[in-house]
Q: What sequence folds into this?
């Protein structure tokens, strides 16, 4: 059974834009919307009533007002509001596990602080077990107009991108949109050629036909599952991040897979997802592999 669409809010313009996007997505998928506010008690000597219970009441009142606004704009939507005390990243990652997808606000160009401040957004993206969608503060429903595509990156073997592709096809089916599946390729160094690889390339008729065939093979299961979704197969020489960003202007949603890795300074997402999150103007869905 599918979980809700969960939107994390903190009162910023970014999180409110993400909330509106999440509400529209919940309506399209006929799922409930869960509005989540993570908060922590902040003692302050100048506040007359600084105890935790009072602060919890303030958070609850503000969240109720936000939820009532969503219900007024989307009366057919099942809206639930939840204020949860705890560390922001841990709370959001926990909430993502119960959701169909998690939607957060993004502050736009520059380091991806994503939701709230510091490394919270990056940690949530890297560790959440469900897809995370990042929405800019200026996002408007007009970006979902007819003709705007769902752009998804595909790389490697078919299994490497299956989750991102399926997410993109589901999003397109819910919107009546076209999927543009992008596979970028580059010329391998001379020492990378081997007799076996040369044979494969020769059978395919060259490098670009080989890449086109690889993309078609990866798309086949989703084409069968979603036969009514139009598909554009886009194969282009260049780095994956650059090629995806070159078609971002026509996208209402960009979908990328995520290969998270741990470093001495914390979790990091792959370079392609990192670049798209920095520079794409449309909402970006980051889908974990496996």
A:
């Amino acid at each position: 059974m599918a979980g809700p669409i969960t939107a994390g809010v903190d009162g910023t313009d970014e999180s409110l834009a993400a909330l509106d996007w999440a509400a529209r997505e919940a309506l399209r998928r006929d799922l409930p919307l869960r509005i989540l506010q993570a908060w922590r008690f902040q003692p302050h000597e100048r506040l007359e009533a600084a105890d935790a219970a009072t602060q919890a009441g303030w958070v609850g009142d503000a969240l109720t007002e936000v939820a009532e606004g969503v219900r007024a704009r989307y009366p057919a939507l099942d809206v639930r509001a939840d204020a949860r005390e705890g560390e922001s990243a841990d709370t959001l990652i926990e909430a993502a596990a119960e959701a169909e997808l998690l939607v957060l606000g993004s502050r736009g160009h520059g380091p991806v602080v994503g939701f709230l401040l510091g490394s919270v957004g990056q940690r949530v993206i890297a560790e959440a077990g469900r897809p995370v969608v990042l929405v800019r503060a200026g996002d408007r429903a007009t970006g979902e107009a007819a003709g705007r595509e769902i752009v998804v990156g595909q790389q490697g073997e078919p299994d490497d991108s299956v989750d991102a592709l399926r997410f993109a096809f589901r999003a397109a089916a819910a919107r009546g949109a076209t999927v543009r599946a992008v596979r970028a390729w580059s010329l391998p160094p001379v020492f990378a050629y081997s007799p076996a690889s040369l044979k494969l390339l020769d059978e395919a008729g060259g490098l670009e036909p080989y890449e086109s065939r690889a993309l078609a093979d990866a798309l086949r299961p989703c084409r069968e599952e979603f036969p009514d979704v139009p598909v554009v197969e886009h194969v282009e020489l260049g780095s994956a991040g650059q090629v995806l960003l070159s078609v971002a202007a026509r996208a209402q949603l960009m979908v990328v897979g995520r290969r998270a890795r741990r470093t001495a300074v914390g979790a990091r997402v792959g370079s392609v997802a990192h670049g798209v999150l920095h520079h794409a103007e449309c909402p970006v869905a980051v889908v974990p592999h496996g």
About this structure: The longest strand covers residues 251-258. The radius of gyration is 21 Å. The chain has two domains: 5-139, 144-288.
